[in-house]
């Protein structure tokens, strides 16, 4: 597919920045004319991914979260990257209800992202960080 445009955003891993990241990606995705449901799906997935960075990548410190988006003719690709502690076992982390964040966390972050996006890939190295890549197809409106 022919690439139309891209955007890069860097934020600190503070909970106050989660809403900003969500809104910025939604505004960027709007150029594809998504339905309200598709836009809601994107916002929810971004919220979960950024929250994972805040809670799990940097549990005791503030770090950098990078968000890179590319729009193509009929889909958006969103990469959310941190330079935090990494994930020891990605397959286990993607299991519903599994969390390393304590009893106040649901363990549903990756499950939610996967259910709202068409594709989800997770790459991680302990001590180096994690990159979550998500794609969402946008259906043409008639």
Structural description of this entry:
There is one protein chain. The protein has 142 residues and is an alpha+beta fold. 34% of the residues lie in helices and 30% in strands. It contains four helices and five strands. The protein has a five-stranded antiparallel sheet, with helices on one face. Helix 1 runs antiparallel to helix 2 and helix 2 (36-57) packs antiparallel against helix 4. The protein starts with a strand and ends in a 5-residue tail after the last strand. 32% of the residues are buried.
Unreliable residue runs: none
Number of strands: 5
% residues in beta strands: 25-35%
What is the residue-averaged pLDDT? 87
Features:
142 residues, 34% helix, alpha+beta
Compact summary:
The protein is α+β, with helices and mostly antiparallel strands and 142 residues long. It has four helices and five strands, in the order βααββααββ.
Detail the topology: elements first, then pairings.
Blueprint lengths: L2 E10 L3 H14 L6 H22 L6 E9 L2 E8 L7 H4 L15 H8 L2 E7 L3 E9 L5
Antiparallel strand pairs: 1-2, 2-3, 3-5, 4-5
